[in-house]
Specification:
The complex is a heterodimer. By secondary structure, chain A is mainly β. Chain A contains 1 helix and 6 strands; from the N terminus they run ββαββββ. Chain A has one helix at 32-35, and strands at residues 2-10, 23-29, 46-50, 59-64, 80-85, 88-91. Chain A has a 5-stranded antiparallel sheet, with no helix packed on it. The longest helix of chain A has 4 residues, at 32-35. Chain A is elongated and about 50 Å long. Chain B is mostly beta strands. Chain B has a single domain (2-82), classed as Beta Barrel (OB fold (Dihydrolipoamide Acetyltransferase, E2P)). The longest helix of chain B has 8 residues, at 61-68. The relative contact order of chain B is 0.30. The chains are: A mainly beta, B mainly beta.
Amino acid sequence: MKLGKVIGKVTLSRQVDSFTGGRWLVVQPLNREALAGKGRPTEPSLVCYDNLGAGVGNIIGYVEGREAAQPFEQESPIDAYNAIIVDTINYMPPKK
Amino acid sequence: MMLCRVDGNVTATVKHKSAHGWRFVICQPITADGVEIGSPTIAIDPLGSGLHSRVMVSTDGKHATELLNCRKTPIRNSVIGIIDT
């Protein structure tokens, strides 16, 4: 699972049946510098399935790979799944 | 399996139902010398690892489903050991 910031939403007119009821979020993955509050995220943003109800500005924990499809009843073509909506992050890397 | 350093933790009220009651830690993949590689990942922590301790993180999704006792969990990473030396 990785942390990312929700920066937008995607709406679809037609989609695969198993995705009904969910929403799509545009997520910016957070790297070390962005988590520490200095520097900007550098990785490309991605689209993530959400049925927890995250909004723009929230930080979420998203899962990629095979496990992203695991919560669905039927096999689904999905790359990223929102597993948690983060309340607080305590990020304290050791000082060099 | 990844060698990681625990750089903090994350709290969440709204999460997938399989993850209720579990602790999430921020794991920074490192080399044996302690040099960071890549972005931090989040893992569930059944062992109670402390801040800045070195841990072994498994990316085995099957182990996570057994640990959480939920076949449909999206969780994949879990702390499987706290490293002494």
